[in-house]
Structures are given as structure tokens and as C-alpha cells.
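Subject: Interface between my chains keeps coming out wrong

I've been trying for a while to get a sensible model of this assembly. When I model each chain on its own everything looks fine, but I need the whole thing in one frame so I can look at the contacts. Pasting all components below, labels as-is. Any help appreciated, I'm running out of ideas.
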Amino acid sequence: MPKKKVKKTANEKDIRHDGRKLNELRPIKIEVGVLGNADGSAYIEQGKNKILAGVYGPKEAHPKHLALPDRTRLRCRYHMAPFSVQERRSPAPSRRDIELSKVIREAFEPSVFTEYYPRTSIDIFIEVLQADGGTRCASITAASLALADAGIPLRDLVSACAAGKVDGRIVLDLDDKEDKEGEADLPLAYMSSQNAITLLQMDGMLTGEEFDQTMNLALEGCKQIYQLQKEALKAKYLEVKEAINKESEEQ
Amino acid sequence: MTSSVVAKVKQRRMADLVSLGKRLDERGLMDYREAQVETGVVEKAEGSARIRLGKTEVLVGIKIGIGEPFSDVPNQGVLTVNAELVPLASPTFEPGPPGEDAIELARVVDRGIRESKAIDLENLCIEPGKKVFIVFIDLYVLNYDGNLIDASALAALAALLNTKVFNYEVKEGEVQIKPGYKSLPIRNYPIAITFAKINDKLVVDPQLEEEQVMDARLTMTIEKDEKVCALQKAGNGYFRIQQISEAAKIARQKAAELRKLVVKK
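Reply #2:
Try treating it as a single job with all components included. I did that and got this:
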């Protein structure tokens, strides 16, 4: 979509249209283990984004010819609910959904010890219930926790965040309005302990200098999100621990 | 692309070669294969080009149609890019609706053209909100030997520069075609540069065997003023930050070289 000129909605130079600072994330709430049937699951709210991720597996690969002899087959479906955006979306997967499913899957491949489970498949399902810009990154943040929640051995969690250029300024974590009206958007996924960039896309126009600046800002965002992910994962196990303690007291 | 098995011994050989700064076909790590671009190869298309990049061959046809604009940009023409991995191009291509690889190819080429504003879409408006020109770019892969993105993007640009739009007049709300043509208004020249990471080293323009053993792939599209206008990482591996900065530098240089093949000035 072509980008339109941004109207000066913010009064001060370093404040964005929603009151955030240039390098400030939207409020993030993450919960791990939210679905009954899935082997692992997580829910994330990032600004107005609301996204559920569920993981099934490792399980026998179906159909059989999909099985890989030396590692598990990672599969991923990114999908947006018809009611997740202003105008109803067809529930059929769009070309965008198919491309995103591919790059998200490839963002997880380096994080999973795929060689531990030959001939199986691990399915990652992502449902965007409400979208407000940056859904692919929030989806990765949630789905990585769902993989961990399923007990799948990981090299590290994958954290994702976008940065971009809006109204001439390099900003972190673009919302839908900024994404549509801004000059560039650069989503990035990162494994902190491995110093590994596992997803990188960009559309818009950036000079060499702006590009380096934007990439570094996105990395800073990923590092902050990484801390939130670890807290969310710990919170789930504290809950489990408390439940067990309570049970043993009652007996 | 659809995975095919590569012998471990070959994988190791390629990794060893790359670490010595060499490649299977004796190119340098940052050398492209020889590229030949021919334009005007399909007369019935408003624009066309055929590229041979080593043994990779892509035919790009451009058709111009008339249709409705998108409601959020009523005064702009419409651009659509589609890719066909034609079954005759490789034993790994299957007939049927486009799979994720074809969709990714089309969308990465689209992103470069769209974000660099290569086509002056406002110039393609006939009646705001009602009728605009639609530019259909169809990427037709004829022989697959790696690096479809760069080959397709280059051929698409060559074809765009060669595209003619028919003259018209509007009579009682109907568009009537008049004799004569004018050139499609092209404002920018985006060039896609693709790197493969093999054995933790970067190579440009991976051929098929290199794609089969690469850890990851990165495409950077560079526009005429050396700005980055599109990026796409793919593949099961990852990149380090330094590798991406390094790639950005090389991409600018390579884009200028490739651009000379299609933009004659």
C-alpha cells in the first residue's frame, strides 16, 4: 500500500501519536499455557494486538511423505480471524498469510533442536484475534513461548519486534496507523543468547545509516521482549508449584 | 524450493570450498553469473523481457488492463505481481496453485517495485475512484538453477522499461482505445541482491546446488539512490548483525553493476 504523508498529530517532537516515546514498546501482556488441548500455548496482547498461539507435537508426521529422516518437520500456520481488522477479512488464507507462515516457520527453525525428533512433525498454529500492526512479531513472541510450554528443547526463545521510520523519525514497535502512514517498517526476530537474527524483512525506504539505526532499535526491542517472555514462562511454573503445594497441604 | 537430497560429501565439499573463498563454478564469493537480458520477446504483451542468469531462465510478461482502484488510493493505478514456477522448469516444480515459494518470490519482487515507487501509479489513473490502469507483472520461471528472486526482479525491471501503454479517450464513461502508445512512467530502478550463507560465509547469486546446502538466504533490494527498499530473510538458518551490515554494503555495489544491464543511460 502506498504511504501517505503523516499529519502532525503529536505536539512534542519526541512523542508519538499515542503518547509513546520513540523507543518505547506498546504495553505487553503475555500468558503461557492458556489452551486445554494444545501441548503448549501462549497468549499475547501487545497494544491492541490480541494473538493466540498453540503447538501440537512432536507427533507422527501426517501425511507420511512429509516425514524427514533426520529431523522433525516444523509446520506453521499464521492466520487472521475474519473479525480481527476493520473490514471483514475472508477466512481463506491470503497470499500474505502464506508468506508470513513461511518466514515465521523459518524464524523458529534455528531455535528448535529439530534433530531430536526425526520422522515427526511439530505444528505451530497462530490465530490473530485482533490486529493492530506488528502482528507477525507478536505472533513469534507468543509462539516461541508455546513451543517452550510444549516442552520442546530450544536453543533459546525467539523474541521479535519491529522498528521503522515514521514522519522522519526512527521509532520502535509500530502500530497499524504508523505502519500504514510511515516510511518504512522493519520486523526482526532474534535469539538473544545466540546473537542470531532469524527473521528479517523490510519495506519502505531507508538510507544506509537509517537502516543500521532501525535494525539496532529493533534489536533493543527484542531484548526487552525477551525479559518479558522469561517472566511469563516463570509465572506459569510458579502457578503450577503453588497448586501442587496447596494440594499437598490439603492431604 | 521443494527440498531434494544432497549428498553429505557434496555438502561438505561446498562448505570447504566457500571457506577457502572458492565456489563450485570457480566464481568469486561476490561474483554474479553471467546475465543476459533480452526485451520485447513476447509481442502480444505490453512489455516483456527474458533473462538468463547462468542457467536460470525467467520470462517476464507485462499486461496492462483497466479496472477499479483500491478504495484507500482512488487516484492510483494498481500493481500486481504473480509468479509461476512452471513445471517444465525443474523436476521439483509441481503443477497446481502457487505454493509458498512462488508466493514469496512474487511478493519480494513486488515489494521492491512498490516500495521504491518504480512505477508512477498516479500517472495511471483514468477516472479517480472509478477507472485506473492495472499493471500485471507475471514472472514465468522457465529453467531453475537458483536465485530466482534476483533474476525475476531484474527481468521485471527490464520489462517495465520496455512496457507501452495504449492511448485512450473516455467517452460517456467508457474507455476507448485509440491508436498509438506511450511508455509506462518509470521513476526508479530497484535491483534485488541475494546472499546465501554457507558455512558462516556470504556468497551472492547462489546457484541451485548452493541453495540446497545454504543455511539461510537474505535478499536486499536497492533503489537508484542506494537506499534499501526491501528485505527478506529466508531459509532455516540465521544471520549475525555484522553479516547483515556487510551484506548491505556489498548489495549497494552489486546493485549498481546489475542496474547497468537494464538501464541504459
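Reply #3:
Confirming on my end. The helical segments of chain A are 95-108, 135-149, 176-181, 208-250.
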